[in-house]
Amino acid sequence: MLSELSGRQSALGRFSFFMKLTVAQLAEKIGAELSGGRDVGISAVEAVDAAGDSDITFVTDDKHRAALEKSGAGAVLVAKRIEGLRIPQLVVENVDAALIEVLSIFAPRLKAPAVGIAPSATVGKNVKIADGVSVGPGAVIDDGARIGDYTVIGSGCKIGHNVNIGKHCRIHHNVVVYHNCDIGNNVIIAANTVIGSMGFGYVLIDGWHKLIPHNGGVVIEDFVEIGANCCVDRAKFGNTIIGEGTKIDNLVQIAHNVVIGKCCLIAGQVGIAGSSKLGDGVVLAGQVGIMDNIEIGSGTVVGAQAGVVHNAGSGQQLVGSPAIDSREKLRLIALQRRLPKFVEQIKQLTARVDKLEAAKDDIK
After folding, report:
1. 250 with 186, same domain?
2. What's the pLDDT tens digit per position in 23-35?
3. What is 313-352 written as a DSSP string?
4. Are residues 93 and 168 in the same domain?
């Protein structure tokens, strides 16, 4: 145990400190009811099957009960007390919410970015930088940009002309924000993402593909989070808009003039073609593709690898390519599974018909 703990401390040595709490202290911090077991020290969160006696784990349903009984965890988060369990239980109302709290408590404490402008950063004319802003090494901020209070601009970022970035944002390393884009408050943009690049719009003229100018911008509203290596194209006119509270995974492409509603969830490798519109609370699973000029109603969920080629109303569940209602898809799958039986029946019926026809010919 000591060697395991020492190894973990060594791995975290680059962080500012190493957090360790007793089970009782942790229960008090998150407002949990503590039930049974020893009051051991907890220093990390782990999955049920990988947890050791200095780890806290969690279960959200009964199917993990068997694994929990074999687990070496020092404590467990549960929604209701489990009888006969030797591990200390932290009983909470919502395991997921409590897990977020616990993960935050044991998150690595990285050194905070230094407030101010790094010597190697370049800042243009008429730039307004508010209180508490951090501009990292090698960052470039072009003329007319505005950066709100306590926002962090990571190293190597490029912030274009007349960009407006709000308060308490975190723009991670090597992000590029093109000119005339507007980013709200409490926005997080992960490394290497590009905001406001030229949209993919061409017209065939005299045998050549001619680029359509994209003179619009991008508006990213408050509390949006965008993952790494994403691309959000600027509009031809008006704005590409990402609504308040929307969360976007890595490797997502959002084309020109797309409008995304509030609190949407967009998973990795999704592609949304130009001028499509998503309502509030839409969920797009991994590798979903949306055709241009498509409208999807609020609360609709689109399953992984679906291809949306027709408008969809609110509150639907779509799967497949082309995407259709999940119940219809299940019906089609059931029919497909019966196809071999149908084929065999058709063969048998065909043979019977042939035999009857042959009998008629003999009578003649």
Report:
1. yes
2. 999 999 999 999 9
3. -TT-EEETTTTEEHHHHHHHHHHHHHHHHHHHHHHHHHHH
4. no
